[in-house]
Specification:
The complex is a heterodimer. By secondary structure, chain A is an alpha+beta fold. Chain A has helices at 2-28, 34-37, 51-57; strands at residues 41-48, 82-100, 105-122, 128-149, 153-172, 182-199, 202-211, 216-224. In chain A, 16% of the residues lie in helices and 53% in strands. In chain A, strands 1-2-3-4-5-6-7-8 form an eight-stranded antiparallel barrel. In chain B, β10 (217-240) and β11 form a beta hairpin. By secondary structure, chain B is α+β, with helices and mostly antiparallel strands. In chain B, α2 runs antiparallel to α3. Chain B has one domain (38-296). Chain B has a 15-stranded antiparallel sheet that branches. Chain B is built from three helices and 16 strands. Classes of the chains: A alpha+beta, B alpha+beta. The interface between A and B is large, with 44 and 49 residues. β2 (82-100) of chain A pairs antiparallel with β1 (22-25) of chain B.
Chain lengths: 234, 297
C-alpha cells in the first residue's frame, strides 16, 4: 500500500513537473496566450454509483445497530399489507457544461439523475401487486480548479451546489385508486477532491468524490475551442 | 482518433454496465402474516393496562391511604402520589391536587372499596397528557378518554376480591370500558399493579388522528378508527421487562374505520409467553417476550 502511494506521488510529481516546464517554456518564449492553446468549453456525460441519492431519498437509509421496531398508527391498520422487493438502480447519470474562465478556473452547471425501482409484493400471497419508483433530479452550479494542465492530461478538483427534486411514484396492479405522486426538494451537491481527464477533443474522465453524482464517476466529453480549432490537431 | 473514440465508448459502456442494474438495497422480509393482528392486540393490551395502571389504581391506592394508620399516611402519599397532595373536599369526597389544580376528585360514599356496597367515582378533566405513551409504541394511544370530564365507576362486584369498572367516553364518543377486575393474591390489594389480577369484560376505544383546525379551533379529525374487544377468558397480568403486559387469557378484537372496513383478530395464550394470533385465516404463535413468531400453522 505504501509502495503504491509512493508510486502515485512520484508519478503525480513527474506529471506536475512536466506541466510546469511546458507552461514556463510557453511564458518565457512569449508564446501564444493559454486561451488559444487550451480548450475553453467542455461538455461531458458521466455515470456514477447512486449510493448517496439512495441514502438521502430514504431508499437505503443509514441505520445504526439493529433495525428498530416501528409500530404503526391505528389509521394505517387498513393499509395494504405489502413489502418491497430489492431496490434496483441504473446508476447516477450527469451531464455538465464548463467554461474555462482562467487557465485553472472553470465555471459551469450540471444536471444529474438517479432512479430507483422496487417491486411491491402482497404479504399474504407473496404475489407482486405493484411497483414503486423514486427519481432524483439535481440541478447544480459547478466550479472546478484544474491544478495540472498538460496537453493531454488535466488533474482537477471542484464542487457543485444546487437544488434537486425527489419524485416518488406508486403503481398498483388492478387498482383504479389514484395513487398520488410525492415530491420533495433537497439541497444537492457534489464534492470532487480529485478528478482526472485525458484526451484532446474527445476525452475521458474519472472522479472520486461525494454527492449526488456518486462516490465514483466516470465518463467522456468533448472540448470546444472558439479561438483556435487547430489545437486539437497538434 | 477514431480508435480513441471507440475505446472511450467501450469504457463508458463498461461503466454503465457496472453501475447500472445493481441492487442498492436488499428486499424486505415478508414479515409475519399475522403482524397486523398482533399490532391490534398489543394496542388493546397497552391501552387497557395503561388505563388500569393510571386511573383505576388511583382508587385502590387512595383506599389503602384512607385505611392506613395516620402515622403511615404521609409515607403512602409520597410513595403513590408523588406529584399530588390528597385533600378532603367534603364528606366522603377527596381530591388529588397538583399544586393548586384539582387533578382528580374521588367520591367514596364514605365506604372503603372492600365494602360490598362500595361505589366509588373517579372524575378528572381529560387532557392529552393522559394518553399512554407505552414504551416503544407511541401510536398505541386512545383518544377516547381525553375530552371533557371523565367519570370512572369502581363498584364492588359480587365476590369479595373483584370490582366492576366502567367508563363511558364523554362528548358523544363511542368509547367505553366495562371490566371486571379480580385480585388474585389478596382480598383487598393496596395497589392493583403490585398484585396479580385478571381482567374480563368488554370495551371500545376510539382513535382520532389528524387534527383539523378551523378558525383556531379543533373542527374534526382526518381518521377515526375504533377497536372493540371482548375478553373470552380472563386476561392475566404479567410484569415484563418493558412493563405491565398480559400473559394469559383469550380476547376477540374487531378494528373498524370510518370507511366501514373491518379487521377481526383472535388472540389466545397457549402457554406462558406463547400467544396464538388468528388474523385473516392465518394462525401463528408469537412469543410476547421476543415479539417473534415461533410457530406457524
Amino acid at each position: 500500500m505504501k509502495k503504491l502511494f509512493l508510486m502515485c506521488a512520484f508519478l503525480t510529481a513527474v506529471l506536475f513537473a512536466g506541466a510546469q516546464n511546458e507552461v514556463s517554456a510557453t511564458a518565457n518564449d512569449d508564446g501564444p496566450d493559454w486561451r488559444t492553446t487550451m480548450p475553453r468549453h467542455e461538455f461531458s456525460l458521466g455515470v456514477g454509483d447512486a449510493y448517496w441519492p439512495a441514502i438521502i431519498t430514504g431508499v437505503n437509509p443509514i441505520r445504526w445497530g439493529d433495525p428498530w421496531y416501528e409500530p404503526i398508527s391505528p389509521a394505517d391498520w387498513f393499509n395494504d399489507e405489502t413489502y418491497h422487493g430489492r431496490w434496483w438502480t441504473a446508476g447516477s447519470y450527469s451531464f455538465s457544461y464548463l467554461f474555462r474562465v482562467y487557465k485553472f478556473l472553470w465555471l459551469g452547471a450540471e444536471v444529474s439523475y438517479a432512479n430507483f425501482t422496487s417491486k411491491v409484493f402482497d404479504k399474504m400471497t407473496d404475489l407482486q401487486v405493484g411497483k414503486d419508483a423514486v427519481h432524483m433530479v439535481s440541478f447544480m452550479s459547478k466550479i472546478r480548479f484544474s491544478f495540472m494542465n498538460t496537453k493531454y492530461v488535466t488533474l482537477y478538483a471542484g464542487f457543485s451546489l444546487g437544488a434537486g427534486v425527489e419524485i416518488e411514484t406508486y403503481k398498483r396492479n388492478n387498482s383504479t385508486e389514484f395513487l398520488p405522486t410525492e415530491t420533495q426538494w433537497h439541497v444537492t451537491g457534489q464534492l470532487t477532491p480529485f478528478g482526472v481527464k485525458a484526451g484532446k477533443g474527445f476525452f475521458g474522465f474519472a472522479e472520486i468524490g461525494w454527492g449526488y453524482k456518486g462516490f465514483g464517476v466516470i465518463g467522456f466529453g468533448y472540448h470546444f475551442n472558439a479561438k483556435n480549432k487547430d489545437i486539437f490537431k497538434q | 482518433m477514431k480508435t480513441n473514440k471507440i475505446y472511450l465508448g467501450l469504457l463508458f459502456s463498461a461503466m454503465v454496465l457496472l453501475f447500472a442494474n445493481c441492487t442498492i438495497r436488499e428486499g424486505e422480509m415478508a414479515g409475519a402474516a399475522t403482524q397486523r393482528g398482533y399490532e391490534i392486540y398489543k394496542t388493546c393490551e397497552s391501552n387497557t393496562l395503561y388505563f388500569i395502571d393510571n386511573k383505576v389504581d388511583i382508587c385502590f391506592k387512595l383506599n389503602a391511604w384512607l385505611e392506613a394508620d395516620s402515622s403511615l399516611k404521609d409515607l403512602l402519599e409520597d410513595k403513590w402520589f408523588p406529584n399530588y397532595k390528597i385533600r378532603k373536599m367534603s364528606d366522603g369526597m377527596y381530591g388529588l391536587y397538583a399544586g393548586a389544580d384539582l387533578a382528580y376528585s374521588i367520591e367514596t360514599g364514605n365506604l372503603p372499596l372492600s365494602d360490598p356496597s362500595a361505589q366509588w367515582i373517579l372524575s378528572w378533566r381529560g387532557t392529552e397528557r393522559d394518553l399512554p405513551n407505552y414504551y416503544d409504541r407511541p401510536y398505541a394511544l386512545t383518544t377516547s378518554f381525553i375530552q371533557g370530564t371523565q367519570e370512572l365507576h369502581v363498584d364492588h362486584a359480587d365476590s369479595t376480591n373483584s370490582w366492576h369498572v366502567t367508563i363511558a367516553g364523554a362528548d358523544s364518543s363511542e368509547a367505553f370500558l366495562d371490566l371486571n377486575i379480580v385480585a388474585l393474591s389478596r382480598l383487598m390489594p393496596q395497589s392493583l399493579i403490585d398484585d396479580d389480577f385478571t381482567v374480563t369484560g368488554t370495551g371500545k376505544y376510539d382513535f382520532l388522528e389528524g387534527k383539523i383546525w378551523k378558525d383556531g379551533e379543533l373542527a374534526g379529525w382526518t381518521h377515526h378508527t375504533c377497536l372493540s374487544f371482548e375478553i373470552k377468558e380472563p386476561m392475566q397480568n404479567f410484569f415484563a421487562y418493558e412493563g405491565l403486559t398480559w400473559n394469559g387469557g383469550k380476547v376477540d378484537l374487531e378494528a373498524s374505520n370510518e370507511n366501514g372496513e373491518k379487521l377481526l383478530v383472535n388472540a389466545e395464550f397457549k402457554g406462558p409467553y406463547n400467544l396464538q394470533i388468528t388474523y385473516k385465516d392465518k394462525v401463528q404463535i408469537w412469543n410476547v417476550n421476543t415479539e417473534q413468531v415461533t410457530e406457524i400453522f
